[in-house]
Write a structure and sequence with these properties.
This protein is α/β, with parallel strands linked by helices and 276 residues long. The chain has 8 helices and 15 strands.
């Protein structure tokens, strides 16, 4: 049986010194290996994408596509600007096999509005559904510059999700919108970078601080947080404690250069032991 299934586009992240694999599914699935044995990804990418190099230890189910989604992340003045060249293949219910539907945890992890909400109609009630809606909150102009958009399928996805994770930056600091979404689902977490996160448990907010660290590279930290949270929740951890463990895991990840901050089983054990 598959323990953790992440669904969404893998990306090629472009940097001044080259490119690295990226995308929520990559960061989340490789994080899940710190806890679980059979981790899988359902993605769409071009034939030249090296899945074995990008996802060591992960069972990758690749839908053929003419290209792989590419992102350029530009950090300046405490913020981030993004340019995207998206893969044209969307991922929907038609791509879910019986084996994939048997996954214990199903993480819907779009990066650029490519995951279709019709998947929920086929996911069994027993599956833990974790959602990172960032990719549903993105659109882009003709030059590929990413801008914020509304979450069109929020009313469909929020009631079914076991847990939602988003960054407060994804909604430009709109806490009113976050509270509205939190009122429609059981667990919603808004991450706040170095400040930790705000857990909304049945709509009630609880702030969970993060340990102080020297940040080197933050890309992927939110996806690493989400995977840690979904797994610890599914394993029966109390929500505030699960957030604290996920904060610890994510904080450790940002102390490494891009693509090198994936947690180990020792990190998972250390963070669990550090949280009372």
């Amino acid at each position: 049986m598959i323990d953790y299934l992440a669904i969404g586009h893998v990306t090629e992240d472009l940097w001044p010194d080259g490119k690295t694999p990226g995308g929520p599914v990559m960061y989340a699935s490789r994080t899940a290996l710190a806890w679980l044995d059979h981790v899988a990804v359902l993605t769409a990418a071009g034939d030249n994408f090296d899945s074995a190099a990008a996802f060591p230890g992960v069972d990758v189910r690749r839908i053929p596509a003419p290209s792989t989604t590419q992102f350029r992340n530009i950090y300046a003045n405490g913020g981030r600007r993004q340019i995207v060249w998206p893969c044209p293949v969307r991922i929907g219910a038609r791509h879910l096999t019986d084996e994939l539907l048997g996954s214990r945890i199903i993480h819907l992890a779009p990066v650029c509005n490519e995951v279709e909400a019709d998947m929920l109609s086929r996911i069994p009630p027993a599956a833990f559904v974790g959602v990172t809606p960032q990719g549903w909150l993105r659109r882009w102009d003709e030059q590929g510059t990413v801008y914020a958009a509304g979450w069109e399928d929020a009313g469909i996805i929020l009631p079914r999700a076991n847990a939602i994770v988003l960054s407060i930056d994804d909604v430009a600091g709109d806490w009113r919108l976050v509270r509205n979404w939190a009122s429609q689902t059981s667990i919603l977490v808004a991450t706040q970078a170095a400040e930790g996160c705000m857990l909304f448990l049945n709509g009630a907010p609880i702030h969970v601080p993060a340990p102080p660290v020297a940040q080197v590279e933050p890309t992927g930290a939110g996806d690493i947080f989400a995977a840690a949270l979904f797994i610890t929740l599914q394993q029966g951890c109390e929500p505030a404690r699960a957030c604290a463990i996920a904060n610890c895991i994510a904080a450790n990840s940002v102390t490494f250069p891009h693509g090198q901050g994936f947690p180990t089983r020792q990190d998972a054990q250390r963070c669990a032991a550090a949280v009372i």
